[in-house]
Amino acid sequence: xxxxxxxxxxxxxxxxxxxxxxxxxxxxxxxxxxxxxxxxxxxxxxxxxxxxxxxxxxxxxxxxxxxxxxxxxxxxxxxxxxxxxxxxxxxxxxxxxxxxxxxxxxxxxxxxxxxxxxxxxxxxxxxxxxxxxxxxxxxxxxxxxxxxxxxxxxxxxxxxxxxxxxxxxxxxxxxxxxxxxxxxxxxxxxxxxxxxxxxxxxxxxxxxxxxxxxxxxxxxxxxxxxxxxxxxxxxxxxxxxxxxxxxxxxxxxxxxxxxxxxxxxxxxxxxxxxxxxxxxxxxxxxxxxxxxxxxxxxxxxxxxxxxxxxxxxxxxxx
Length: 318
Description:
Oligomer: single chain
Shape: globular
CATH topology: Aminopeptidase
Number of domains: 1
Number of helices: 11
Mean pLDDT: 92
Structural class: alpha/beta
Distance between the termini: 40 Å
Strand order of the largest sheet: 1-2-4-3-5-10-6-9
CATH architecture: 3-Layer(aba) Sandwich
Radius of gyration: 19 Å
C-alpha cells in the first residue's frame, strides 16, 4: 500500500504495533481517500498488452480480450486476459495470474514479458491463459488491498467480496476447461513488515507477527497438493536467474516450515488464495524479493518468467 497508509496505521494503533481499535467503515473510507495514483495502468499494462498482441508472432496465436470492468469512485478499470486463439481439448491448460496484489510489480510485468517473448514457444503444447493484472487499482496506487480494504488474494471463494477475485473466477469458469497448471506471480517486499502487516493489525484489531523478510526467491505450494517435484523444477529454473531464499534459523520462511529449498506450503483453498480456486494439478505462487541488494528490477521480471517456463518444462517432461 502507499506510504499514506502509515499515517492511517498510526491513528488506529498505539504507534508500537499495539492494536487500539479495529477499523470500521469510517476508518476504511479515510484510508481509501488518502490513496493516490502513483503510476499508470493504461501506460504500463494495457498499452504493453496492445503492443504485444500487435506483434505478428503473437497476433497470429493469441487474443487480447476484456473480461470485466471494475468501477470505483475514482475511476473505472477494464480487465484484460490474453489467451490462445485455438483451443485443443487434448492439451493441458496453463493459467498465469499477475497483479493479484497490485503493488507487486514484477508479477504484472513478468506476466506481460511472458506474453511478449515466451508464450508463443509453448502455445503448440498448451492452452494458455494469462491475466496479467488482476488488481489494476492496486497497481496504480501501489496497494495490496482493493479500495474497500479487502485483500483479493484472500478472497477467491464463492460470493467473493472482492470484485477483482470474482471477475477472474467468472472468466475461468466461462472457459469451461480444467486448469492443469496455475502459476500466480507475487513479490515479498520490505514493506510487508513496515506497512502492510501493521495495517492488517489495525484493520482487523488483531496484532500480527512481524517476520524476517526472506532475501531471495521462494515458492508457496498447496499443502493439500504439494507437488514437490514440480516445485523443485520451478526452483531449479529460477535459480539460474536469481538466488533462492535461505530458511531462517528456525528452518522457516515467513513463519512457515520449509519443505525443501525455497518452498513452503499453505492451505490455498482454505485461505482463499488465487491458486486455490483453479483446482490445478500443478500450482505454485512465486515470491520474488525486489528489495534485495543483489537483484535488479529486470532480474525480478526475468525470474518470474523463469518460474513459468520451469513449470511448463516440467509438465512437458513428466
